[in-house]
Hints:
alpha+beta; 122 residues; Trna Endonuclease, Chain: A, domain 1; 5 strands
Amino acid sequence: MGEAGEACVRQYLEEQGWQILAQQWRCRWGELDLVASRAGELIFVEVKTRSGQGWDQKGLLAVGIQKQQRLIRAAQAFLSQHPDLAELACRFDVALVEQRPGKEGVSYALADYLQGAFELWE
């Protein structure tokens, strides 16, 4: 389900003119779901996919302070491995994806996209 949600967000970003630089990039601090660039900007996108309303506001509550700190560390590690990108303006976005059952099977739709959901540098 998570990979399908990431594919949905990847398609959305590409349609918006973003170039995907990495997907499921891993380091000791965790994983960056998507890293993309466009016009001198770099975004780190955390994707949360849910099958229903759930208790965590479609996945938003799953991106708490500890998760944000891990993502920040992972982004710093990514930038240290890609110094050519370190000068770009960076931000963290959160994409909330819904799994929707239908007559033709399950589909995935972007429910909300939060630009600049939290700060890169504390």
